[in-house]
What does this fold into?
Amino acid sequence: MAVHSPSDGWIGTSLLRKEDARHLLGHGMFIADIRVPGLQEIAFVRSQMAHARVRQITVPADAAGGVFTLADLGPLNILEAGPELAAHRHSPYPALADERVRYVGQPIAACLKPTRAEAEDLADQVGLELEELPAIVDCVKAMNPGSPRVFDQWPDNAFISSTVKEGEPDTLAAAPIRLRRQLRMNRQATVSLECRGSLAYWDYRNDELVVYLSTQGGHVARRGLAQALGLPEHKLRVIAPDVGGGFGGKNRMMPEDIAVAAIAMKVGHPVRWIEDRREHLMASVHARDHFYDLTISAEADGTLLGVEGEVYIDAGAYSLWPTGSFMEASMASRNLTGPYRIRHLNLKTFTVATNKAPMGPYRGVARPGACFAIERLVDEVARELGREPFDLRRQNIVTAAEMPYQTAAGMRLDTGDYIAALDLARDMINLPAIRERQLRGESDGRAIGLGFAFYTEQSGHGQVEWVKRKSRVVPGYESANARMLPDGTVIIHVGTQNHGQGHETTLSQIAAHELTIDPSRISVRYGDTATTPFGFGTFASRTIVFAGGAVARASRTLGEKIQRIGAHLLQADVANTRLEAGAVHGPSGSVSFAEIAQAANIRQEHLPTGLDPLLDVTATYEPKETGGVFSYGTHAVVVAVEPDTGSVEILDYAVSEDCGTMINPMIVDGQVQGGIAQGIGTALYEEIPYDEMGQPLATTFGDYMVPCAPEIPTVRMGHLVTPALATEYGVKGLGEGGAIAPPAAIANAVADAFRHIGASFNETPLTPRRVSEAIDRARRAKRAVA
Amino acid sequence: MKAAPFEYVRAKTVAEASVLLGRKGVTTAAIAGGQSLVPMLGLRVALIDLLVDISRLEDLKVVTRTPDSVWLGALTTHAAIEDGLTPDAFGGLMRRIASQISYRAVRNRGTIGGSVALADPAADWPCCLIALDASVRIVGRNGVRVERVADFIQGQYETTLATGDIIMGFDIPAPAGRLRWGFAKVTRKSGAFAHSMAIATMRGKDGPAAVVLGAAGPHPRRLEATTGMLGLGESSEEQLRPAIAADLESHFADQDAYQKRMHTATILRAVREMRTQ
Amino acid sequence: MTAVTIELNGVKISDDVEPRQTLADFVRDRCGLTATHLGCEHGACGACTVVLDGEATRSCLSLAVMCDGRSVLTLEGLRTDPVMDVLRRHFHESHALQCGFCTPGMLMMARDILQRLPCPEDMTVRHELSGQICRCTGYANIVKAIVAAGQELGGRNLVDRAPADPADAAAFDSEGM
It folds into this structure.
């Protein structure tokens, strides 16, 4: 049997990344880099109105064959998107608009020309007659009876409403402390640096449609495209090239992708669409956009009791296949207990359709909003009681002794020492020193604030969790194929989709650990439905748990066969052999994997009788417990705020985090730092405001602020390691945690800076205007009282 | 985001450029650094028939220093000023301003002439040149004219440039003696357009002062009341505030309470810096 | 169409281009050099950074026609460049890239920084990286890599932009006249 202990060999090694070489040389192959003879480019004609009837589309006479409307795409099927719940309403989302457009940017027609510039010229000539309808832009007002509808046939504008009631929330009315607050996390985009894109052509030799797609999951995309196009799946190949970031924005079926594929089938030559930045900000996946009206109840001694209220999700105009966006409301409500012993919940959730681009997942998915809400409320309770917010957290947080702890919302917090994480962050940020500094005051007149936020990150959740969410696609396992070639080197194919997370490296570390060979002799491949076993892609912080487990299993099974062959070649008993340093060792000597692989592939006469040739194993994997394993940590932030301008500077950012066993600590740190950068973006910078006509007001980077190096500090990190019990090596997924807590921690820090005047900061991003106005309001209120 | 088609010609002389730009019935634009124009063309918010390339006109690259003034040709790049490659009679004020315009790669190409010709309300050079009481020389169909930059810029993206006019460059009076200055800018992130910009200057210890506020309205404005207070000697910030408020009321009345707070803070920061010099 | 001759990575390329074609599209589509990436096409992200006549330039903000007679360097042309070599090694060792899309622009800008500023410190590098967007790394390791590369190069890599001597600039100063 292969010997493996958690702390030796390749597990826990900060191996430098294999994927670096091509990018450092400029030889990455992204969707816009692919050269295909005969390729033509597509530009979309998009709606300039948020809500309108499409009266007429006029194609210029000399553009014959170059402009496609919905009718020109051939018969297409509308995908049913959303959870498999009768109550979830169907929002038919055609690849190109039919008689209605429902958000600014919705694609109406596709123009095809040899170059993108010419395609845009043609798009400018397409005439559009749109009859404007009232735009529904406020997701709370949209739920008023009598509000105009996004979908005429719906009784109200909710995709779905739900209630989460746990414990005995009726007892909360008697609680001594009851604070009601409204909190808002505003709409933003995902902003991968590489926009979306797809390239499609019919491969006559293989008699299949080939679609290159900048995607986080090609197998699931194939399923969606096949259903939409009415193509059998064996005639559709999806290939992901290098993908320049996804963060959730490349993990849903989008109308342009269906249109491009349909056009390719019509014209018989390759076609491509590359999304530009304006399209991305207008019409790609939108995210966050939560509104909370919550009341938190507590005892006078600070024991947190329960949360009641309403959660509104502004979900945009359509559900995106396969999941729709109900998970925003359900994950938000289920995370409103935070990591605390809050036992009572009474929440009404509304996933509301509006005339905005459809909402999709974005790093953290709903939890940044929920974390923002609960962590702000905890600070508010602390302020009400005159307590240190840190201490209130410590008092209420679930302890290691209580693990596994079933939250009121049904999440099973598996392993961890949350108190240790709190304390580590407190010590790193040096809470007492900050409190002293605040008493001294600053010579430049700025106010110093300290904020904490604790997050849990459900990761590696499988069947149980996805079935609970009524998913029509249940990503309950992953697959890996491990193959040893005649010279003893290994190729592993996985069903996940590396797009910056270093899987070529970390998964090879796992295989190297199991097989006792060097990672440099292992190639990890992914991203092609023709060559990889079925898998679900990379999202929900699942890859290291699922693909890592599948690679481990496949490698182990491969190793077992290698050992059998080796024992046979050594004429020894298998029980007296072991794998070590790429060879099978027995009492009388050793035989290399190369010799064994040669036997298995091209010299089968050397194999033991009854043993089939080849060293090729496909394995699936799911964790022992499929409710998820929870990474967690504490973010601690010190800010300096200029009260008049409202500008916020982050002076220090410290994080304690625990993601169980770390396969590659360097990559873990990179994910945390990167997640926090996006969290800071949500907290302070990124927003797409809409006017009352449903026009998005930030459609280029001139208005949409993406933080750069001067805005993002280097985060100081402390790690705890509490292995998971349900996964291989005790790993937990961690890719999203960094993005979950920053809005809460930063808002708490700004609020802390102005604690003495009771200013509240309950809306992200905390733009300078919002901060300054909140301070001004609080100062006036204080003066009025005095 | 590809531009709509247009014709292109590279002017060989300023006179030729002026004629090309002045052609009737043809929508023309002059391009120098292109850092503002090219994105506008790509977004198709600027639609032109003919692009006239003036980026290689040597006459627009002249830079000279006389005892009384500095002449900066219109094609002087922000980077050249940032790097100290141009004469500095202003105690480093222009170097500092240049170093904070956009990003280095943009500064390598963007020009002072382009910035002033566009007259974006949030642009840095208009504010600076007004504070330094600079003049702009313009060549056009009607010959050469010289105007104070403060008069040249009339509103948001509005100048006295007529069709066929080309900015030759800027004549900036060199202060006799040391120039003390302060510069403050508020941006949402590094390199982004300013939401508030203030420049405070004073010749020597208590010589003539100037306070200019930009990015607050259609174009930058001298703040007379604040300037007057500065000239009266060491007024405290509390004493300056009413003057600032009066100036904001006179010139930037449509700014809301937050904006007025922000501008006040910016102006005070600039004054504070000037006083440390 | 307008005839242009552009020296691209040391090779003179002559072609007819549409005036509207950006230098970025010329390099990528006409010349097949796709290391230079498009992240925004309005000069706000830096993914398209090249070197034009020795100066860092956003190729999406430059028109190919205006580069007639000029020289352009892309990442592909710096394969054996000694400064880029050091930078690549430090980027690799510092885990300064994840998805890789911003990396060419970052490397081009990093090289420019190290040619102008000897041994730059953390805050200087951050300021110089304004407007270079990375969505994956959170910048920390990129800054670390550039600082380390600068230390290793020790200012040997500076490129002169006359006048380098402040005394020369001072000749223009009011004091000197």
